[in-house]
Structures are given as structure tokens and as C-alpha cells.
Amino acid sequence: MNTVLEAATSYVKEELAGEGSGHDWWHIYRVEQLAITLATEEGADLFICRLAALLHDVADEKLNESEEAGMKKVADWLALHAVDPEQAQHVLSIIQGMSFKGGGGQIMPTLEGKIVQDADRLDALGAVGIARTFQYSGNRGQLIYDPDLPVRVTMTKEEYRNGRSTAINHFYEKLLKLKEHMNTDYGKKLAEERHAYMETFLKTFYAEWDGKK
Ligand code: ADP
Ligand code: NI
Asked: Domain 2-209, what fold?
């Protein structure tokens, strides 16, 4: 493997050790694998996609004092590893575009940015997406489902705090909307497959809930 990618892999494993919010090393691993699949299909720069995928959560504000501090950490790492300044700038702009609250929905100007953003979104879908949702929900002490709570497609911070969300509600609030936000053709195709799998899951879930299956 390319030595920069190898070094980035070790660095990220260390940085995210003990990360419990769904952004552990294996999330990064899956996003990198998806980025490779998408970059190959879409004819994008593999090195940029892989490096940005590996580093995409290192600058997250959850792990740093501020967004700026997080970005500086990544910039310093790229400089220390002698990444070509133009490539480093490209990777930084991708991470900047996807890491932050409010920035997560940003339109990515380059194909590589579109790919890494698609890869991150795909990891919230399908069988893995379902698993991550229930893990996150359990971690927050939420119910798996509560038929007495009306489905809410937008939730406020207060509602979260008051326990008015459930794992199942998160599908309506976010997961089922994601396929409309894919950037690339191949990303869209994979999102549609993962979406269909989640629809099947929900159908079976409700049938079981009412003892019909
Ligand atoms: P990102 O990887 O884009 O930063 P988030 O931090 O929003 O995504 O979420 C990480 C994982 O946790 C995702 O798989 C997501 O579905 C799940 N998750 C986020 N918010 C909730 C929630 N309110 N209820 C259940 N799962 C959630
Ligand atoms: Ni991510």
C-alpha cells in the first residue's frame, strides 16, 4: 500500500480509539472501501478519495476543541507526511465540506468530494445503517419503537432530550431521505438497493410488532 495511506490508517486507528458515537475505526474502514468502489466506477482519483475517507472524521468537532483546531490537526498531519500541497488542499476542502454540523449538506465541488460524501451517507443505509441506528439509539437510552409517539420527520433538540425519538423514528427523520441526496450515479444505485432493504426491514418489523408474523 502507498505509505501515506498506510500512515493515515495507523493515525486514524489511534485517533478514533474509544470513539463511541458511531464513528469508530470500522466506520472509517467501510467508508474507505465504499470510496474505492465508487472511485473505480466513477473514474475518480483513488488516492484523494481514500485519503479523504480515512481522515474525514478526524477533524470532527466531537473530537476537537473546535472545528478550526480539528482542521489544523489534519493540515499539520498532511504537511508532516509531505503530501503534495495541491492534493493536501483538496483533501482538506473535502473534509471541511463534510465534517461539520451545517456543513454536512454542503454541495461538493469536485468528483472526489462527491464520492467521499456519498460513501459516508451510504454507511448510514442498508444492513449496516440499521445496525448503527440501533447502536446509537441504545447508547442514548432510546426505545427501539414507540407506536404512541407520532412519526416525526424533523426533530428538535428538546424532543431528543425529552426522549421523544426512537430508533425507528430515525428512519423517517433521516435515513429514508438520504437516497435523494446522493451525488454520483453509482452512489445513487447503491443507495437505492440499501433503501429497498430498509423498507423491507420496516415492513417486517411492523408485521412482527403486531404479531402478524
Ligand atoms: P455522520 O456519520 O454523518 O456524522 P451522525 O453522526 O449523524 O452521522 O450519525 C452516526 C450514526 O448514528 C448514523 O448511522 C446514524 O444513523 C446514527 N444516528 C444519528 N442520529 C441518530 C438518532 N437520533 N437516532 C438513531 N440513530 C442515529
Ligand atoms: Ni463518517
From this structure: Hypothetical protein af1432 (1.10.3210)
